[in-house]
Amino acid sequence: MATALAKADDVDAVDHAARIEHVSKSFPGPAGQQLVLDDITLDVAPGEFVTLLGASGCGKSTLLNLVAGLDQPSAGGITTHGRPALMFQEHALFPWLTAGKNIELALRLGGVPKQERRGRAEELLELVRLKGSYGKRVHELSGGMRQRVAMARALAQDSRLLLMDEPFAALDAITRDLLHDELTRIWEETGLSVLFVTHNVREAVRLAQRVVLLSSRPGRIAREWRVDIPQPRRIEDAPVAELSLEITEVLRGEIRRHGQH
Question: 36-72, pLDDT tens digit by residue?
Fold first, then answer.
């Protein structure tokens, strides 16, 4: 079933940023159809930050791609309030364009008039703490700075739902921690809804209001946790570590149950 997109003027009529209803997804394999996701039902509320957590191969990215509309479910349905913005692990910036021009490209595709694009791009760069970087080429930016530009480009799509597929996984621990702070700040300032995929338990707890754990082979919702720890949080905070340990034990049980190592 195709992803249905709510109209922008229906903002007062919806009670969810994304609604996933009994979604399953299969792919063809050597032994026939392989079930990757099985009967997933999940809502993301307006302004909510949800992390999808699970072992490699459990279907987290597949589910995110379905919500983004990049693929269609084999069964069930997905509705989103407006078209989601998607941010990948790789920054996917065009190296022949400056930081600002990469953002302007997204603005142009979104129908923003030419005379407004530079000002809007500079506003977005300031939002991600890269003021003055409009004219910098991709090779002049550090890994963390590139991901900030990628975040600004995603925000340029003017979506109320941001989908993030392990966007900080390739970064060093200090840079990742700084970007956790930036993402939390931007989420709080903008009121965006975020659906964030990770296999890092502490990252999931550090960021989210709700952690959703997927089982493996096929992916099903195994358990959810409401994270009532006030922001700002740190990875090393005792409440974060305590909840992370609880979730890790459940995750290990899921991995053992499915025979993964």
Answer: 999 999 999 999 999 999 888 889 999 999 999 999 9
Q: Distance between CA 200 and CA 211 in Å, rounded?
A: 11
Q: Which domains does the chain have, with CATH numbers?
A: 4-84+161-257 (3.40.50.300), 91-158 (no CATH)
Residue 213 carries which DSSP code? E
Distance of CA 154 to the CA centre of its chain: 11
**Cα 170 to chain centroid, rounded:** 15
Count Cα atoms within 13 angstroms, Cβ side, for 104.
Answer: 15
Dihedral of the CA atoms 181, 187, 193, 196 (nearest 10)? -10
CA–CA separation, 173 vs 187, rounded Å? 21
* Distance between CA atoms of residues 164 and 27, nearest Å: 23
Task: Compute the chain's Rg from CA coordinates.
Answer: 19
Tell me the residue length of the chain.
261
Task: For residue 63, give the H/E element and its range.
Answer: helix 60-68
Measured between alpha carbons, how far is 180 from 232 in angstroms, rounded to an integer?
A: 10
pTM for the structure as a whole: 0.89
Give per-residue pLDDT as tens, 71-118.
999 999 999 988 899 998 777 899 999 999 999 999 998 889 999 999
Sequence-ordered list of residues with C-beta below 8 angstroms from that of 144, at least 6 positions apart, any chain: 171, 175, 178, 179
Provide φ and ψ at 196, rounded to 5°. -120, 120
